[in-house]
Backbone:
């Protein structure tokens, strides 16, 4: 085993012997297509909504002005008594709800969040082709624990946050930020392919698309 390893490493060293110790960084040309979708913004929103629904997320469409009333209704229909609110969430989003708001300043514990009915957040961006939401702990998104422990997550997506594909999404994200990628409610399957939801995160994901 040891001899084989040394032989492989020796061949690698021999292949690299003519290369400089500190090669210049060069951009690698990439001429492949970066998205299958090249439609209008409205068409991207339609594809995002379709793929989110395919992942069993509950999808809603509204305008910015209609958002406070819609969020109040969704929380009321859920019977939510408490809702976690991340720092930086716009105040007017929850101005119409009567649900008790738990504003997170970093002190909401997992046990407290486990007893919290819902959480409302924004997102960093959304990917239409895959029906994926990306949160990076920015304003209005909060700590990762906020969206993993409560059983009901409402995520608001603005039209300007929607990109067509993964290759278009990555350059817009900061790799140093803690990212959470969400495609539908938490789900897993056993060997019999019986789907179980809510094991690793919220059992119910509702997405509100603005625009």
Residues:
């Amino acid at each position: 085993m040891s001899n084989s390893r040394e032989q492989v490493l020796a061949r690698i060293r021999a292949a690299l012997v003519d290369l400089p110790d500190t090669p210049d960084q060069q951009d690698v040309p990439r001429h492949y297509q970066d998205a299958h979708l090249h439609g209008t913004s409205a068409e991207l929103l339609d594809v995002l909504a379709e793929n989110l629904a395919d992942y069993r997320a509950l999808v809603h469409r509204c305008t910015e002005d209609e958002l406070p009333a819609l969020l109040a209704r969704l929380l009321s229909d859920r019977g939510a008594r408490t809702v976690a609110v991340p720092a930086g969430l716009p105040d007017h989003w929850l101005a119409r709800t009567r649900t008790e708001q738990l504003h997170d300043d970093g002190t909401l514990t997992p046990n407290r969040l486990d007893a919290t009915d819902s959480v409302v957040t924004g997102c960093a961006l959304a990917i239409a082709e895959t029906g994926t939401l990306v949160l990076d702990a920015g304003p209005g998104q909060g700590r990762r624990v906020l969206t993993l422990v409560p059983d009901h997550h409402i995520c608001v997506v603005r039209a300007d946050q929607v990109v067509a594909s993964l290759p278009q999404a990555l350059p817009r994200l900061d790799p140093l930020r803690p990212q959470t990628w969400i495609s539908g409610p938490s789900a897993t399957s056993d060997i019999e392919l019986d789907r179980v939801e809510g094991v690793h995160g919220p059992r119910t994901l509702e997405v509100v698309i603005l625009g």
User: Anything to note?
Assistant: The domain at 39-210 is CATH 3.40.50.10420 (Rossmann fold).
